[in-house]
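#structure-requests
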Amino acid sequence: MEPLGWLFLALAALGVAGSVLPLVPGGLLSVAGVAGYWWSTGFAEPSALVVAALVSVGVLTMLVDYFGGAIAARAGGASAVTTGVAVVVGLLLLLLAGPVGFLVGIAATVFAVEFAQHADTERGLRVALYATVGVLASTVVQVILTGSVLVVLVLVVVI
């Protein structure tokens, strides 16, 4: 394999790491690795069908990254306002305190806004739990998706 091929394989591996690192677009790195590897082989391998499937998985990963926590919060009963405020606060706290700040910011914001809207502690806690578990679960899903892209790409290289 050409050195350039190894570079794109490494980029796909960084996609898996990016799935757990804040502000690193794991799905996008995986897609770039697949597309770059395909380009480096002169579009010879993997087949266009495999590339399309892997790119689709990468795009799905990006959607899970951007919307997974919000979808979980909505599933738990959070309003659109609650979800929007929690995302903004979570991102600000991510910059100030890292991933823990992000999680705590989302959970606390969802609880506070839901409690302010409904004056129901149990509801606020339930919705905050859904949102927090949703953020963590979306990370797990991203690792599985980007990991599967990497495994298939490695198999293409080896076989």
